[in-house]
Amino acid sequence: MTVMATKFTPEVLLSAPRRSAAVPNSTGTLALYTVSEYSFETHSKKYAIKVLDIKTRQSTQLFDNPAYSEPTWLSETEFIVLKSNDTATSVLVADAAKPDIVPYEVIAFTGSLSNIKVKDIGNGTIAFAGTGPKEQPESPDPLTSAKVYTSLFVRHWDSYVPKHKQGLFYGALKKDGSKFKLQTKDLVNALHGTEFETPVPPFGDSSDYDIGPAGLVFVSKDPELNPALYTKTDVYYIPLKSFTEEKSPFPQQIKTGKLQGYAGTPVFSHAGTQLVFKKMRNRQYESDKWRLLLIPDIKDLSNVQEFYRTDDGEGAWDRRPEGVVWSNDDSELYVTAEKEGRQVLFKLPSSPLSAKQLPEQITEDGTIGSFYNLSTSDNRLFFTSTSLVDNSSYSIIDPQSKELGLVSSSSKEGKSFGLTKRQVDEFWFKGAGDYKAHALVMKPSSFDPSKKYPLAFLIHGGPQGAWAQSWSTRWNPAVFAEQGYVVVMPNPTGSTGYGQALTDGIAGDWGGRPYNDLVNCFEHISDNLSYVDTNNAVALGASYGGYMINWIQGHPLGRKFKALVCHDGIFSTLNNWATEELFFPIHDFGGILWEKRDNYARWDPATFAGNWATPQLIIHSELDYRLPISEGLAAFNALQARGVPSRFLTFNDENHWVLKHENSLVWHKEVLGWINKWTGLDTAGLADDTRNLSV
Predict the structure, then answer these.
(1) Which residue has the higher pLDDT, 19 or 3?
(2) DSSP state at residue 249
(3) Per-residue pLDDT for 675 more than 50?
(4) Predicted confidence (pLDDT) at residue 695 exceeds the cutoff of 60
């Protein structure tokens, strides 16, 4: 961002450059990243691959071809880039020091190749891997669109489940003169002839596998369990000596005893002899606590050691580790984990036998995403992060001294948006039980503590999730704050980052403790935040937050708001078996519908629809298969039948989220126009009752 925004509007949010995580090279001198930018004037998107000089902090554009993706370092200056079309992918090699030289092809892959990784395994050999379709899909019958299924899944997230699965492909690259060359005729499908699939759909990525000098490790669903009913995934190991083997050995499962849930993030040590990964215990719970596990010697898969293991199986560290990086000498692990509205870095010894103390926190604020060793000789870490005012920062930290330095901020630490850290606040309030709950606050940039501002009360989804000090292009509190609201984002029962007990507390109690926490939060605002006018308040939520909006409608808290916004919410919990991942309602409602019907019915918003009275905007899209559109239509029908002022917004090409730029702009204008109308704020340029999208 080089242009200063006069006001942080939806257009500014959605057209701001979006940077990927930056990845440093082996010497810590350069970092590769991509950036995309959308123009509402030309209705077009720009894309570029760039390289950042870490010392001078200057960036250089290397390519602007939108067909290029996934820049990945091969050497100090050479890197791989994928060039894809509808039927094939070319793996090209480029040089950041020679941006004018046309990249050359090293691999021609039939089909879509993605999630690439490389690893120097010695003797001048670079192991290469990526994921793609195991088999090429058959051409559809042009005379019919029929699909026939005889087992679960039928559809997943936003698409009907295809017959063919994704495979893991490998090969070896070696210099032949001045150019790299593939050492086999084609890439080898390591999962050929198996039922395994990686990455795990729908959101798996390159973190679902890793390359080591001794072979590959990957995560896959347990092929003996139905993926609609169970979350169980496992880590598998494929030993390879040279990555030129024309046929790989059958994958070996790493068994984890009583830990039978999701597996994730397998990462080889730098030496390649050790493996760390994470695992959940419950095989029908997507938000269980991750536990870190170590295999001290990859040649002995039976020796699996758990960090901070306790006799009761709960684990002594009450955090949920996400990303994992080994120190250069393999003596320490660095992990990210949520903590009270942040995602921060921790460090711990790399052996469970040495990890006597709980991990040490080494960062304080913001949300850290991808992070890497700065170089093979520098023990500092290079990481990408965001905050509530900054959409992309690259920083370096010394894990020992905790000395932190900013390398690059896309928005000049928020200044380009007209935002500052002074707008961000937080408070703790009494929960519905014997605990304190937490909330984040975003104030207008023109905030005056002597004035009163209407309240925008945001309820997060999940339900096992949390509001955090992080950037979003979908629910960005700064957009609401710059309309003139004080935005409060409570993290009630069910939230992550406050210990597993609070996260687990929502199961079987959807409209109980979480609702009462929100009531207490609203009362705390009324009693303690003198600059908030709780008599002029609106509440908004998506997914579980949308469910809670519908629940609030039928209960006393609903009468505290001038208007409500429900995005992709549940109208009736009794309909929740129309979802795709059935393990979700099975866990959260304590069993299957026909055996535990009372558990589903107890927290059904539709039961209380006779009390609905607050004006409400409903948003629900056609491709949301997690919460089918019938839920949004039913809620809108109920509001209309009761004569409650209401509005229905839908997109036929969006899923659980609204992702396309032009659609997202409509979403923002509809939402802001709706709440501003009822709170008396400016609606100029926003949606109003004269706009009918169905015409």
Answers:
(1) 19
(2) P
(3) yes
(4) no
- What's the gap between Cα 46 and its chain centre? 23
Which listed residue (208, 504, 517, 624) is catalytic? Answer: 624
In terms of Cβ atoms closer than 10 Å to its own Cβ (0-12, 13-18, 19+), residue 140 is exposed
Which residues, in sequence order, are bridge partners of residue 486? 455
Domain count, the chain: 1
What token pair was written down for 127?
């192991």
Per-residue model confidence as pLDDT tens digits over 299-354: 999 999 999 999 999 999 999 999 999 999 999 999 999 999 999 999 999 999 99
- Per-residue tokens: 434: 């014997």
Asked whether the bond before 199 is cis by omega within 30 degrees of 0, the reply is yes
Q: Is residue 608 part of a domain?
A: yes
Q: What is the mean pLDDT of residues 364-370?
A: 97
Q: Which residues, other chains included, contact 362 with Cβ-Cβ below 8 Å and sequence gap of 6+?
A: 334, 344, 345, 346, 347, 397, 399, 402
- Domain range spanning residue 625? 420-679
Q: Which residues contact 214 (CB under 8 A, 6 or more apart)?
A: 239, 240, 272, 273, 298, 299
Q: Within 10 A of 333 (CB to CB), how many other CB atoms are there?
A: 24
At position 662, the amino acid (one-letter code) is E
User: Angle 544-553/513-528 helices, nearest 10 degrees?
Assistant: 80
Task: State yes or no: pLDDT of 694 exceeds 50.
Answer: no
Domain presence at residue 478: yes
Model confidence pLDDT, tens digit, residues 480-499? 999 999 999 999 999 999 99
Q: The domain that contains 621 carries what CATH number?
A: 3.40.50.1820
Strand partners of residue 487: 442, 456
Q: Which of 385, 395, 543, 621 is catalytic?
A: 543
Active site residue 656: yes
Q: Dihedral sign, CA of 60, 66, 71, 74?
A: negative
Report the distance separating Cα 88 and Cα 331, nearest Å.
42
How many Å is the maximal CA-CA distance in the chain? 77
Inter-residue contact 243 to 172 (CB < 8 Å): yes
Q: In what order do the strands lie in the sheet containing 78-84? A: 68-73, 78-84, 88-95, 104-110
SS (H, E, C) 50-103: EEEECCCCEEEEEECCCCEEEEEECCCCEEEEEEECCCEEEEEEEECCCCCCCC
Q: What is the token pair recorded at 540? A: 């908004």
Strand partners, 537: 455
CA distances for 228 relative to 201, 260, 466, angstroms: 12, 16, 25
Asked whether residue 512 is domain-assigned, the answer is yes
Report the amino acid identity of residue 618.
I
Active site residue 450: no
Q: Looking at residue 6, what is its pLDDT?
A: 73
pLDDT in tens, 77-119: 999 999 998 889 999 999 999 999 999 999 999 999 999 999 9
Q: Give the contacts of 448 (CB within 8 A, at least 6 positions apart).
A: 531
**pLDDT per residue over 110-148, tens digit each?**
999 999 999 999 999 999 999 999 987 777 788 999 999
**53 lies in some domain:** no
Choose the catalytic residue: 656, 661, 664, 668: 656
Beta pairing, strands 179-182 & 166-176: antiparallel
- Banded pLDDT at 4 (limits 50, 70, 90): low
- Report whether 320 contacts 312 (CB < 8 A): no
pLDDT in tens, 447-461: 999 999 999 999 999
What percent of the chain has a predicted confidence (pLDDT) above 90? Answer: 96
Q: Is 653 a catalytic residue?
A: no
